[in-house]
Amino acid sequence: MTETRHNWTKEEIIAIYNKPLMDLLYEAATVHRKHHDPNTVQVSTLLSIKTGGCSEDCGYCPQAARYHTGVEVEEMMSVSHVKAQALRAKSSGASRVCMGAAWRNVKDGPEFDQVLEMVRTINKLNMEVCCTLGMITENQAKRLAEAGLYAYNHNLDTSEEYYKEVISTRGFEDRLQTIENVRKTNITVCSGGIIGMGESLEDRAGMLVALSTLNPQPESVPINALVAVEGTPMEDQKPVEIWEMIRMIATTRIVMPETQVRLSAGRTQMSREGQAMCFFAGANSIFAGDKLLTTPNPNINEDMMMFEMLGLRTQKPFEKHAQPTTVEAEDSEFVALGENPKWTRPAHKIERNENKRKTRINED
Q1: pLDDT digits (tens, 9 = 90+) for 39-70
Q2: Tens digit of each residue's pLDDT (9 = 90 or more) over 194-219
């Protein structure tokens, strides 16, 4: 079970997840060692370049404008500020800067032009650049590729079946369409999900089916443990047990052997021993830095101490894929088209999301 397959079934994945833990760890570690250096971990820094005020109703997200979470709406960061943050991350050992904007989808105009300039700036620092900006069209993906974008993140979040219990303002098919648009360029794909949102094991397996049957599979798959934020509809969800995280990481490694599996949100709740087992199970990427957009994350100095203790080294930029070429704005082949795509707006309502929205209205 070490070759890349694109025909995994939900039943097969559940069977892998439920294996005796020692057998699961042994198999995952064996697959990991065949395709990756087991002592190398890729380090990314996640930077919120446009915080708060999002129009979506994602039940887990503190940046949704309709919930009362204490997250203030902030203007977009300047290019110079982003560059300074990137240099700081680079000096700390990060090889990639991931920039997130609280948007439903990208809209052509001055803000997107500013993002393109951020991408050019960071790529010139010899760092990998990733963006997560919501849904994008094919032309917008090509403009990002021209600027030098290395990866685009667009998480599936959960299974297609459970998706409608988490988000009602966009459709699962729009996630897949955005990934397809990115695949029409040389940008690599980063797509994963969140566990601990009240989903079943079948839903976790369903998410891995959706990701693993993509051809090619995503180059990076973040596995997040829900960080339950007060004021969100999921504020009362219980923390994910470390054994669930280990099993999810190991299963992801087995069904997507060549992918970099990122141990993402929720690490503040994990011991060093728990994280070490995740690395053994096949995780070979982390987010480092004080925050993941708006939620807490371990300090990068703590991570470097953990790496030293475990004998891990940080992955250099562009070890997996070549550095993209940056095309300056004035030389760009692709220009803004002023597109207005009809991204899906499902008609259903999610009771817990609606209740939190009404609470926000009453408090205001």
Answers
A1: 999 999 888 888 877 888 888 888 877 777 77
A2: 999 999 999 999 999 999 999 999 99
Catalytic residues: 54, 58, 61, 98, 130, 190, 262
Tokens of 34: 């065949």
CB 261 within 8 A of CB 252: yes
Pairing of strands 151-153, 128-132: parallel
Contact 152, 189 (CB under 8 A): yes
Q: What predicted TM-score, i.e. pTM, was given to this entire model? A: 0.93
Backbone angles phi, psi at 279, to 5 degrees: -65, -40
**Strand-pair category, 283-288 with 40-50:** parallel
**Where on the phi/psi map is residue 133: left (φ > 0), alpha (ψ -120 to 50), or beta?**
alpha
One-letter amino acid of 38: P
Residue 87 carries which side chain, given as an amino acid letter?
L
- Alpha carbons 101 and 293: distance in angstroms, whole number: 9
Place of tokens 């966009």: 170
